[in-house]
Amino acid sequence: xxxxxxxxxxxVFNFLEFAVxxxxxxxxxxxxGNIGMGPNIKWFYAMQGIVSIFMPALLGILADKYMQAQxxxxxxxxxxxxxxxxxxxxxxxxxxxxxxxxxFTLYSFSVAFFMPTIALGNSVCYKTLEVNGKDPVKxxxxxxxxxxxxxxxxxxxxxxLVIDGKALQxxxxxxxxxxxxxxxxxxxxxxxxxxxxxxxxxxxxxxxxGLKAFTLFKDRQFAIFxxxxxxxxxxxxxxxxxxxxxxxxxxxxxxxxxxxxxxxSNALISLSQASETLCILLIPFFMKRFGIKKVMLIxxxxxxFRFGFFGLGQPDMPGVLFFILSCxxxxxxxxxxxxxxxxxxxxxxxxxxxxxxxxxxxxMTNGLGASIGTLAAGAVVDACVYNAATPSWSNAWYIFAAYxxxxxxxxxxxxxxxxxKAE
Length: 423
Description:
The chain is mainly α.
C-alpha cells in the first residue's frame, strides 16, 4: 500500500537520524581535550571507522535476507542509545576522574550499533520511495536535506545550551542528548512502512550470507570506485575530530580567546552542514549531467580547499574568512562524495543486494577509509602539535590538503565511469 505522507515520514526519519550524530560528532574532541584526553581523540573517531568495517555489512545482510530493514534500523538505535546514555551517566558520576577505558568501551559499543544505521537508513529510504513509485535519485536528496538540518540543530543546541554553567560542547551532557534522541528514533522507526525483503529460492551459500555484494569487485572499474571511496573516506573524520579542538586551542591567546570562532566553535563549524543543505539539492543535476566520476573529482578537490583554508585561517578578521570558506566548500566535499556515491551504488546494483552493497560502500568509506585516515591524521597531529617543540596546526592541515590533492589526481587518471549494472 502506498503511503500518501511518505515524504514527510522520511523527512522526520532523516532529521532524527542525523540529529543523533550531530549532538556529539563535532564537539566530542573538545570535551575530551577538556578532560585531558586530547592525545586519545584519534581513537574515539577511529573507532567509528573500525566498527564500520564489519557492522554495516553484517546488518546489511540481515536487512537484505532475514529482517525488514526498518526493524533492523530500530533495534540498532535502541542499543546505540542505551550505550550512549550509559557513557553519559558514567561521565556524570566520575566527575573529573573519567577513565579512558570505561568511557571508550561504552562509546565503542554505542557507535558499533549507530554506524550501520547510516547505510541502513539509506536502504530504508530508497526501498520506501521505490515502493511508493518515486525515483530515489530525484526524490531522495530533498528529503536528505532535512537530515543535515537535524545535524545543524543538534550542533547549535550543543553549542549554545548551557547546563550547570557549561555548554553541552564542553560537557558529557552531549552524550546524554545523543542517547535520548537515539531512543526516540528507535521508537519512531517501528512505525515506518515495511521494507520488502528480497528472498531468492535455491540461493547459493554466498547469496544466503549476503556476500554477493563483494562480487562487485570483479568489475575492474567498480573495484577502483570502491578503492578510491576508501581513500577519500580517509578525509571524512579529520575535521570532525580535530576542527573544534583546533579552534579551542586559540583560547590560550588572550587576544583571540573571546572571538566568536573560539567561544562558539561548534556554531561556526555548523556552517559546514548549512552548506550541505544547499549542495544536496545540486546532486540530481550534477549526477545526471556529469556522472559519478566528475562528481567525485569535484569532491576530492573540494577536500583540498577544505583543509587548506583551515591551515590559512585565524579566529579574528580577516583570517576567520578562511574558516568560513572552508565550511562553505565542505558541503561539496562531503555531499558530492557521500550522497552521490550511495546513490550510484543503489542505481548500479541488483535489488537483492541493495542493503549489502550499501554496507560495502559504508565499509570502504566510513570503515576502512575513516579508521585508517583518522589514525593517520592523529599521527600527523601528534607530530605537528602535541609532540612538536613548536606546535603548528597549519602544517597538519596542509599535509591533509596535499593528501587529498594526490588522491584526486590519481582518480582522474585511473577511473572510468562503469556501465550501469542494475537490472
